[in-house]
Every structure is written in C-alpha cells, then in structure tokens.
Amino acid sequence: MLHAATHDPSVVTLDFANGTRARFHAIWLRDNALDPETRDPGNGQRLITIGDIPADTSVSAAEVVEGDLRVTFQPEDKTVTFPASWLADHAYDREMSHAKGWIAPGITTWDASIEAPGADWAEVHRSTAAKRAWLAAVAEYGFAKLTGGPTEPESLLKVADLFGYVRETNYGPYFEVRTEVNPTNLAFTGLGLQAHTDNPYRDPVPTLQILYCLENSAKGGDSIVVDGFRAAERLREENPEGFALLAGYPARFEYRGSDGVCLRSRRPMIELSPDGQLIGIRFNNRSAAPLVDIPFDRMEAYYAAYRQLAGYIDDPAMGVSFKLEPGESFIVDNTRVLHARTGYSGAGSRWLQGCYADKDGLLSTLAALDMTQPEAAE
C-alpha cells in the first residue's frame, strides 16, 4: 500500500506504507501502463510501440487513491491506475551493482553433501503440488530424479510432456545410451565419462536433458551430477583473475561425428549476463576445439584457470552419485549442471534413453502452477 506520492513532470516519487521509497520515470510508467488500450486484458501483451508514446510525455498529476497510484500523462491527458503491489514488485530505483558472477535469487548451489531431490512418477501425475515441487527442485538445484516410472521404451518422452516439449536434434527425438559397435559418440560406449555439459557445440545448447533408465544390471555405470555454478563460485573465490579469463574469452567447441553434421560454437566456459550474473557453464573436454581467441600473453593463465575449474569439477566432494534403476530418470539443467558416469562392464545390460527439452517450458509451467494453484507453492 502507498502512503504518499509526489511528482515533477518527469519523475513520480512514492512512499510505501512499509517505509520504503521508490522513484519512477514518466516514460517508464507510460510504457508500462496497465489500461486496456495499452495492454491486452487477456494475455497482457503490449498493444502500443515505443513510437506511439509521445516523446514529450510528462506527468501532470499523481495521487494515492485507496492505497494505489493514479497518474495522469500529458500531452495525451491519459489517466492510469497502478496497484501498489505491482509497483513494489517492479521497482528499479535500487542498488544494482553486483560482483561478477552473482547468482540469481532462487538458485541454491550445492556439493556432494546434498541429498538428491526427487519425486515419484505416480505422484507428479496425480498431484499438482508434487509436480510443482519437482519442477521447483530443477529450477533451484538444476537437477532432480523421478522414480517409480514405467520401463517401456520412450517413457522419457512422457517426462518431457509433464512440462514442455522434446527438442529434436541430429540424434533424433531421443537417443539410446548403450554400448554400440563403432559408436558415433563416446557416450555410446562403456567408458567412464568426465562430468560435462551436453552439446556445447550447439548455439543455443539444449537447456534440459532427461536420462531415463530401462535396464541396468551391468556392474558400474553410476550417474554423477556436479553443480557447475558451485565450481565457478569456487574459482571466483580462489582465483578471481582466472574466473575473469574463463568468463571473458570465448572457448570453441565442435562436433563432426556423423555424415552431414558439423556443429560449432564460440562461447565462454563461464557465461555471464551484461550485469555480471552467472547464467551458464559450457564444459566438455571431448568436444573442445582449439582455443584461438585468447591473447598470446594470456593463454598460459587461461589454461591454468581451465585446469583449476576442471579440478573442482572432478573433486569427489562436489559430485552427487546414484545408480539409476529401471523406471528411474533424472533431469538436469544443461546450462548449469554437469553429468558424468562411471565406467561399466560388458556383463549384464545397461540401457538408458536420453532426450533434450527446453528450460523455458519448465519455468513457464512452474510459473503457471504458481499463479493458478498458489496453494501448491506453499
């Protein structure tokens, strides 16, 4: 609730009942007006362009009415009401400086001490609250298991159906993870794999990966997940100059594993937004192409930082390990969480299927559940 509002032609200053104060520019308020001529009442999309707003837009009146803000804009002589709660949620008059590598609210970094979050197949299909909790775990921790599922091939597609759509690649809608003769990818052998993010040679990368177990009687083949954000945090804390190198210069990745396919990308191993937020990790030694974008006099220091980051990723104290049983699966945020596996023998059988999906679908489903079923978020 608002306590008071003052204004000049270009700025409205608000005092909230909780004692906080925030300023809003006239042009910002006009652009974000909530009236039906500015925004569609059904989908909330804006109905005007920036060019439709007069360049000399100003505020001629601003007052508190029943705890909310009522503003009149000139030269349109247009009056709009803004709920106080909406203004509080969208206030931008605040300190915005962050240390490089800051992590968004709602994300929790972790190491091997965490208990793997998970949910039951039947529960997430039956209960909105269970489904919401499972999706929220992926959003917060970057991974979660799903147990008690069916063991029929393509069951992983039903996992993606819970929140979005499968992203098809040159591997098809999904791929098999089992020992093959003359494999096109090392993932299709019994070799152990270092923790990595998948498909760093794509731009954009698939943002979610689902791995689903159908058979697993082979000795070994345990799955391991590592929080790449936590590894980057450690590097930033212990070697800030090395962190800046891996974030400041692009690495290169390439895949040419089958006829007609040559995928390449040029992205940093540690990706930051323009305001320094940690938003992505790309780490895959098998797909790394020669580094050619680092200055000569920084190359040795870059490799030292690369080695240091790899050491954190390989540290047993960083990884959560589990062996998937038939009907179990896990989902990882492929922009953050690295996955690995221990080697396994030819005795017995190990058959997993994998597919990719997009994180925006998961986050959209989660946000929609929070809006339509707020009790599920409590």
Strand order, largest beta sheet: 7-8-18-11-20-9
* Shape field: globular
Number of strand elements: 20
CATH architecture of the largest domain: 4-Layer Sandwich
Average pLDDT level: 93
Biggest β-sheet, characterized?
6 strands, mixed
Distance between the termini: 23 Å
**What's the helical proportion of residues?**
10-25%
Q: So how many helices? A: 9
Structural class, please?
alpha+beta
| Unreliable spans | none
Order of helices and strands: EEEHEEEHEHHEHEEEEHHEEEEHEEEEH
Please report the first level of CATH classification, the CATH class of the largest domain: Alpha Beta
Number of domains: 2
What is the beta-strand fraction?
Answer: 25-35%
Q: Provide the CATH superfamily of the largest domain.
A: Clavaminate synthase-like
Q: Which value, in Å, is the CA radius of gyration?
A: 25 Å
Pfam families: GBBH-like_N, TauD
Family: Belongs to the gamma-BBH/TMLD family.
GO molecular function: 2-oxoglutarate-dependent dioxygenase activity; iron ion binding
Cofactor: Fe(2+); L-ascorbate
List the helices and strands and how they pair.
Blueprint lengths: L1 E6 L3 E6 L4 E5 H6 L26 E8 L2 E7 L3 E5 L1 H6 L28 E3 H6 L1 H14 L1 E5 L7 H7 L13 E3 L15 E4 L11 E9 L6 E5 H11 L1 H9 L2 E5 L7 E5 L2 E3 L5 E4 L17 H16 L4 E4 L6 E5 L3 E5 L8 E8 L1 H14 L6
Parallel strand pairs: 7-8
Antiparallel strand pairs: 1-2, 2-3, 4-5, 5-6, 8-18, 9-20, 10-19, 11-18, 11-20, 12-17, 12-19, 13-14, 15-16
GO molecular function: 2-oxoglutarate-dependent dioxygenase activity; iron ion binding
Protein name: Gamma-butyrobetaine dioxygenase
GO biological process, one term: carnitine biosynthetic process
